[in-house]
Amino acid sequence: ATNNLDRIMSQEGLYNAELARLAGLSERTISRLRHGRADGSPTTHQKVVRGLNIIPRSIHKYEIQEVFPNK
After folding, report:
1. Global pTM?
2. Does residue 1 register a pLDDT over 70?
3. Distance CA 55, CA 50 (A)
4. How far apart are CA 65 and CA 71, in angstroms?
5. Looking at the predicted structure, is the pLDDT value of residue 7 above 90?
6. Residue 19: what pLDDT?
7. Do 48 and 31 form a contact (C-beta atoms < 8 A)?
């Protein structure tokens, strides 16, 4: 995997549609990032991490490097 998004989403019990809504991105974009079919821009990475950090049931706060290493 080129990133840790799939693992983190599974850990958080998060569906593509929910993260897409929280991040302000399309479900297709989330799916492509999650399964390594797209790298995404720095702006997209920021939106994803912001979305992960406002999951109502999560207390963990994510950093870009944790989700998208080597970016």
Report:
1. 0.87
2. no
3. 9
4. 7
5. yes
6. 96
7. no
Tokens matching residue 70: 């080597």
What are the pLDDT digits (tens) for 38-66? 889 999 999 999 999 987 777 788 888 99
Alpha-carbon dihedral sign for residues 22, 23, 28, 33: negative
**Closest CA relative to residue 50, chosen from 16, 69, 29, 25:** 25
Question: What's at 69, amino acid-wise?
Answer: P
Tokens for 69? 């290493």
Q: Is 27 exposed, middle or buried (0-12, 13-18, 19+ CB in 10 A)?
A: middle
- Cα pseudo-dihedral 25, 31, 37, 41, rounded to 10: 20
Taking the C-alpha atoms of residue 26 and residue 67, their distance in angstroms, rounded to an integer, is 18
* Burial label, 13 (beta-carbon count in 10 A; 0-12, 13-18, 19+): exposed
